[in-house]
Amino acid sequence: MFSISESAKFITREQVSEKFYVRLGHRLFRKLVCVAVLGGTLRWDETIGKSAPFYFLFSIFMKKSLLLILLSIYSFTTIHAEITWTLSDDGTLTISGTDMPDYEGSWDTPWGSATSNIKKVVINDGVTNIGINAFGGWYPNLTSVTIPNSVTSIGDNAFFMCSGLTSINIPEAVTRIGGGAFSMCRALTSITIPNSVTSIGRTAFYLCSGLTSVSIPNSVTSIGDMAFYNCSSLTSITIPNSVTSIENQTFSGCSGLTSVTIPETLTSIGEGAFSGCSGLTSITIPETLTSIGEGAFSGCSGLTSITIPETLTSIGDAAFGGCSGFQSIVVEKGNKKYDSRNNCNAIIETETNSLIAGCNNTLIPVTVTSIGKEAFRGCSGIALINIPETVTNIGARAFSGCRKLSSINIPETVTNIGWGAFEGCSSLTSINIPKAVTKIGATAFQGCSALASINIPNSVTEIGGSAFDGTAWFNNQPDGLIYIGSFLYKYKGAMPENTNIVIKEGTKSIVGEAFFDCFRLTSISIPESVRSIGTNAFERCSGLTSITLPESVTSIGSGAFSKTGLTSITLPNSLTSIEVLAFSACSSLTSVTIPNSVTSIGINAFGGCSSLTSITIPNSVTSIGYEAFSGCSSLTSVTNLATSPQKIAEDTFYDYDKKERVLHVLPGYKAAYEAADFWKDFSIVEDATTGIDAVKETPTISSDKIFSISGQQLNKTKKGVNIINGKKILVK
């Protein structure tokens, strides 16, 4: 099989590949074969990387003896047969053999160092497959590929990013086109898929923006997620009868698509399947269809009408959001899940009375209780709309982008205004927020440039970040701290160096993103009146090294202190959860005190806190999220006071060897942790203590702050563990 020169003392990766290239199940073994066969001076930076111990070991063995051993092993481990290759002066890469191996990337192929020189690929007859990543990555000058009839499979990412490839002939023998096989081949203008192909993989033609036509044969039964994502030049597509499901985002972003033929066999259309197909003017939903996924036709602004058959039982959120061209919406009589009652020109979920899709001509029936997510998004023809008194909820982006909407009456029954609900309603001059509203979502009125006055009722307990940015009211505010009602809304303008801020008494909440990227902020005083700190409120405040959180704070939003300069933090006993990303990437944070009131630690809550050396998890914590402490490279000690080990993921403490870290548990519970997944990977010691200071029969309490172990404020002590002035006291 091999042509071996005994005199070969030095060989590069390219020279090895010209003689042979064997793909074995274990990549390292393959490379050690090369060492044994061709001598002990193989360069590590070109073949084996950092495996210096292996190099030393193999270089001292006798070459002939080792070769016999390795070839003997090889004779019983033929996973991939040999292929050979040549690269001519004119840039033609010719490949011969049978079974092409899979590769990790262009750097892993035997011709990897010559990719920029390759202009043409000729695969000779006999090769049965094109391996994973065989020609994917960086082939800027590749314009032509010849595939023989012997090839039956095109592997994942096989021609990924071959930006000069304009056309390709797929032979009749191919049954599978792998995921990402032709992804980002932007110059590819047309492709004919033969009748032998049964599956088109995920992202197979992703971002092939030059592709104008594609023929999908009846043999195809499966088209993967995002298979034709953002093929913006594609004008028409016929989906064969053999396909029963269109997967998530399969044709998303195909803005040039004007015609789609959906077969009668189709039962489901996935999430975002045709989202952003703004050129699509009509679509016929077959009677066989039972499910339309979230955002399936979102942004299809060219559609003028839709008829929902009586067989359809599931429509995802915002399935028709942004279909601003709708003039007619009809649900067939007999549909038990949805209706268009009173010829309202809308889709209403019958059981919940939620209006999930409307248009410029919709009349909202008085029986509707909720306006769904993106129900009227982009309906630029609406100048005014009457919301009936029965409505209690206005969903996310419900009226977003209704540019002509100048007046809207929100009834007193509404309790929630979702995020982005009126975003971009640039003609809206006034708004009455009723007294029943408790929550105004992020960006709810952002970009309402004519909105000059805003009144927040006392009922509101939460305002999302940037809810009023870009309004006339916000634009007219002077630089500095902006308050709206009892909310600290935002710091506006450029902050001076070494800024110290005192928040005024009576403030109930710090709105999300209030101090986002205020890197010149060095200190802040938060009064006892503050109950909540919003999402990303102090994110990227790198100059903020310390902060005192009052016991009144019951909620800290996700990412609230992410990427700050905090060195230590003591969380208040009133807090019950640490949200997602709350303190992530606080690289200077060395210590955290988590009170016994906290029951959950969110995903990546302390991820990337590389200076954190120890952490104590109180007994109250029952849930710890994925990657909660990932990247805490200095963490050497974890104390867990839970008597029942929490379920954690493998990556909860990702990025270090747990065996080098000590897990301190309460006496008598070591066995429980040794039996628990991932906790058992630590070095476990039974030496933890509860931290209860003393046992008192009748503690003397004057004006002390008293809390229960769950964080509830008490008027007097009660039997059991009490938190008094921040200390745990056992009262008999």
Structure description:
The chain is mostly beta strands and 732 residues long. Among the domains are: 13-74, no CATH class; 89-223, Leucine-rich repeat, LRR (right-handed beta-alpha superhelix); 235-349, Ribonuclease Inhibitor (Leucine-rich repeat, LRR (right-handed beta-alpha superhelix), Alpha-Beta Horseshoe); 694-731, no CATH class. The protein contains six helices and 51 strands. The protein has an eight-stranded mixed β-sheet with strand order 21-22-23-24-26-28-29-30, with no helix packed on it. Strand 1 (83-87) and strand 2 form a beta hairpin. Residues 1-81 and 694-698 have low confidence and may be disordered.
Give the secondary structure arrangement, pairings included:
Blueprint: H1 13-19, H2 27-38, H3 52-59, H4 63-74, E1 83-87, E2 92-97, E3 120-123, E4 129-130, E5 144-146, E6 153-154, E7 167-169, E8 176-177, E9 190-192, E10 199-200, E11 213-215, E12 222-223, E13 236-238, E14 245-246, E15 259-261, E16 268-269, E17 291-292, E18 305-308, E19 314-315, E20 328-331, E21 338-339, E22 347-349, E23 354-357, E24 370-371, E25 384-386, E26 393-394, E27 407-409, E28 416-417, E29 439-440, E30 462-463, H5 472-475, E31 480-484, E32 487-492, E33 499-502, E34 509-510, E35 521-525, E36 532-533, E37 555-556, E38 568-570, E39 577-578, E40 591-593, E41 600-601, E42 614-617, E43 623-624, E44 637-640, E45 662-665, H6 670-674, E46 683-686, E47 694-696, E48 706-708, E49 713-714, E50 720-724, E51 727-731
